[in-house]
Amino acid sequence: MSAPHSVCIVSATSPSSSAAPVTARAFAAAMAALGPFEPRPHLGVAVSGGADSMALALLAARWASMRGGQVTALTVDHRLRPAAKLEARQVHRWLAAAGITHRTLVWQGGAGAKGRALQARARAARYGLLEDWCAGNGVLHLLTAHHRGDQAETFLLRLAAHSGPRGLSAMSPVRELTRVRLLRPLLGFDREQLEATLSRAGQDWIEDPSNRDSTYARVRLRALMPQMTDAGMEGADMAALAARFATVRRRLDDRLARRLAVAVRPHPAGFMCLDRRVFCDGVTEEGQQGLARVIGAVSGAPFAPRRERLARLFDALARRDFTGATLGGCRVLPDGPSGLLVCREPSAQADSLRVRAGTFSWDGRFFLRLRGQGQGYRVGALGISGWRALARRAPELVAGARAQAIPVPVRATLPALFGRFGPVQVPHIGYGPVSRGAATLKIIEVRPLVAEPLAGPRVPASLGACLGSPPTLSIGHS
């Protein structure tokens, strides 16, 4: 092992494991289980430079080439370590030598970042950058190098956190993100097999020093794995247990999808109306999971609220004296004698965002496409003052059916385009710029971003359009 210029490189000749490398046939079988794929597929592959991701890049490149496709390797520089930039350059040299296109994506918010939630923020930023690149380049599939050992560690971490069957299913081979499919084709292979794959190819790799940092729970757990193996707890056995829980999870998700299809009505403005009697009737655990899905979809948060908070809120929903509550950046309010309204909590919304022509996401909840020209524009929450301004400027519009269909608690949370003198466009109620020329910046498309679909791909297409991907609001292309 050497460390030129602070980059810790492992030589392909150093591993002494007798593990067999991953063959092209075995990798093709793993990919087939994640398909189908389009003709001449273009794959994005997340590559840090470690053994796992370097092996994945080589295997995926060969797989895509045999199908007339291509691979683009994507390295994220979080700017959290001085050596990260040098590591990205080394990865670029290695992949260029292998004939693989490579791009480095930089997290601008990483320099100087600190705080307890730094790793979670960095992870969210990493996936955001990867997804943005794939969406901007027409790439439908993003591959990551999680392997069997990672699956076993995730299972144990979830077990320690007292997770239920859904959590104990660990990482799924396929995850539908908003604009790309996240694929994990290596979950059936060990790290030793991936290192053997690189050794056979004569390919070195980088050892990330954070893999030895005991401040991370996963690193501490990894250090205990040899003792667990001696006690008869093999990593492969734990991964197999996760797979069994995944089967249970699919059955539970099917039942939950059927309930949500009847009990929930999503609105493209980012709120949901629930039939309280249907939603709260039945298995309590299933109802709590449904509530977590609804809150995640409305808030845009990638993680569900804590189970004890969900349980308290779910119990409260069934009581006649329920007057409302907040959880996970959402407000949950009574809506008539048998309904519930779940909408964004105004104080939890993101700050306004300066915008120009192009595509943007805001508040983790909306994807917007803007066209035209102009300076000084921003996208943000309409706010109470913005709604009042609309009532003065366009009283007929605000009094119309479209605007009045937006519940009062939702109105302040609507996404709006602001100019120097207040709101100039509020797509969800049809308020827009007077000028239709190219010189005016305007929103031409807005659609919800759903952190986790309410119901998975097993829901029929007619329901999936409503529950999994709330409808796009097209404003026009003038």
Strand content: 15-25%
Give start-end ranges of low-pLDDT stretches.
Answer: 457-472
Supply Rg.
Answer: 24 Å
Main sheet summary: 6 strands, mixed
Report the end-to-end length measured between terminal Cα atoms.
60 Å
Helix content class: 25-40%
By helix and strand content, what is the structural category?
A: alpha+beta
Number of helices: 17
Strands, count: 21
Whole-number average pLDDT?
A: 85
The outline comes out as globular
Question: What strand line-up does the widest sheet have?
Answer: 4-3-2-5-7-6
What would you note in describing this structure?
The chain has 478 residues and is of the alpha+beta class. 40% of the residues lie in helices and 18% in strands. Helix 5 (148-160) crosses helix 8 (217-230), helix 9 (235-263) crosses helix 11 (284-299) and helix 11 (284-299) crosses helix 12. The longest helix has 29 residues, at 235-263. The N and C termini lie far apart (60 Å). The model is unreliable at 457-472 (pLDDT under 50).
